[in-house]
Amino acid sequence: MLASSSSTAISLHPLANYNASATPSLNPSSLFFSSSYSYLSPLSFRLHSSKTHLRITPKKGLRVSCSTNEPLKVMISGAPASGKGTQCELIVQKFGLVHISTGDLLRAEVSSGTEIGNKAKEFMNSGRLVPDEIVTAMVTVRLSRQDAKEKGWLLDGYPRSFAQAQSLEELNIRPDIYIVLDVPDEILIDRCVGRRLDPVTGKIYHLKNFPPESEEIKARLVTRADDTEEKVKSRLEIYKQNAAAISSTYSSITNKIDGNRPKEIIFKDIDSLLSQLLKDKTAKSVKPVLQTENCLDQASSNEEKWRGIPTRLNNIPHSREIRNYFYDDVLQATQRAVNDGRTRLKVEINIPELNPEMDVYRIGTLMELVRVIALSFADDGKRVKVCVQGSMGEGALAGMPLQLAGTRKILEFMDWGNYGAMGTFIKIGSIGAKEVDEEDDMFILVAPQNAVGNCIIDDLRAMTDAAGKRPVILINPRLKDLPGSSGIMQTMGRDKRLEYAASFESCYFFRLLYYAGTQYPIMGAIRMTYPYDYELYKRVDEPSGKEKYVSLSTFKERPTIDEINDAFLGKPRNKDKKASGIWGFLSGVF
């Protein structure tokens, strides 16, 4: 707590020595807070809007009820290749709903070893379908969690049978709307059958909609095994049978959307439906009642909630909900970047369990993140190679960074599900050009980093050159030069190495902000998810003992330390501003 009567100078810096790539690495300038600022409560991590709310204490009598609005509950259905996955992603981005799919639930429950997961695993191991009651139990448990209750939910591709639909009805689980993406069979078949794979680059083409650039490329294209007309028609028939079985249950709330249009036009219709539905739900929740207690603070708090960002990030170990949030947040950003054709990407996420600078670092959390990303792309039919660097150096100087010791063994012994993904769609490899095979569609590199006296960048560059236009994703890379005993590493080719390291585009960035030299309390956070701007937030304590995060600013590029300090001080942004004092002098010298 800041208790002195005079202004107290504190220096703000992010965890792990924050450094914006566009500026030299300088110590941050001081921030000054008046003594009225005090830090009282345990940490909570939520995003709030920057609106200012007037505190009002109403008198007894007739007034408007301020009970919180009921969130949206949405089900969506669509045949294979209907574009359902894309629309789910857009819905989550716009409305912040919790996205729930049974495939993800099965993997999560089995991986976590829960009672439901163990029961499901018995059936999966014996080659039998998981019974409806087990799947429904998984869905019910997920829907009962606090995030789904607070933010609403988007149930993707479930229920798939009349029995499943009736089970949800009996449990009083019913959506506000049932969206069906309607695409003609011939279009769906054409979307699948017309797809072609370039085995050299890993790029996906479509003979009509996205033809190859040259005859040379066209000659080497191949058809994937699951893109034959026979298999596509079989999947369509199964979908139609399931859709017909549950149509009567949701007939009164069904909305068919023409899915044979550009994705932006399709989402415009969905956005209109959900926005109107949300407006109607809000109107119904506001009614005059006789009430004597003051609940305006509760409504204000709900309105300002940082949707989706977990709380208590300094509490270790993180809860399963916190981990799952970040896994999903990283995955969605990575998927958007890959779908937009980005091929050189990096993920930088420094929550305490994923920051090797802290003594609470957990390698298992990093491995889980890698598994989630790899399995998701594998589910889309991509062949993913997960790579961990091997020993560097020779003789007595051979070794590898301590952070990565044993990582490959952990990956090999992890539970990758019972779908046969490991060894077929997912393989484990090292870093280097020889690890790139023609069948690989993309590469996920686990925390590639330099060691004292040894540099991984040459092997990394050789690998990316061999990968060509196929995506290479770095998870928490640490590619700064480290000093060698001879000093050679810092001088020879340093500029080229740093230039190459900077060529990877950030698709996800998350970092907490602390007092300088401390890891408590959390002062704020910086977050970026592709293709959106960097967002800077400040944590503010409230008299009630709670806390909130207020949005300070957004930046097209990663903010510099001066920009962060100015935003915390409320200074207007000045792009031409130069660092002052000794830091300005040193910046000029460098």
Automatic annotation (TrEMBL):
It is found in: Plastid, Chloroplast. One of its GO terms (molecular function) is AMP kinase activity. InterPro entries: Adenyl_kin_sub, Adenylat/UMP-CMP_kin, Adenylat_kinase_CS, ADK_active_lid_dom_sf, Chloroplast_ADK, DUF1995, P-loop_NTPase. Its EC number is 2.7.4.3. Gene3D superfamilies: P-loop containing nucleotide triphosphate hydrolases. GO terms for cellular component: chloroplast. CDD domains: ADK (cd01428). Residues 323-565 form the DUF1995 domain. The keyword Lipid biosynthesis does not apply. Keywords: ATP-binding, Chloroplast, Kinase, Nucleotide-binding, Plastid, Transferase. Pfam families: ADK, DUF1995. It is an enzyme of class 2 (transferase). It catalyses: AMP + ATP = 2 ADP. Belongs to the adenylate kinase family. Monomer. This is adenylate kinase. It comes from Gossypium mustelinum (Cotton).
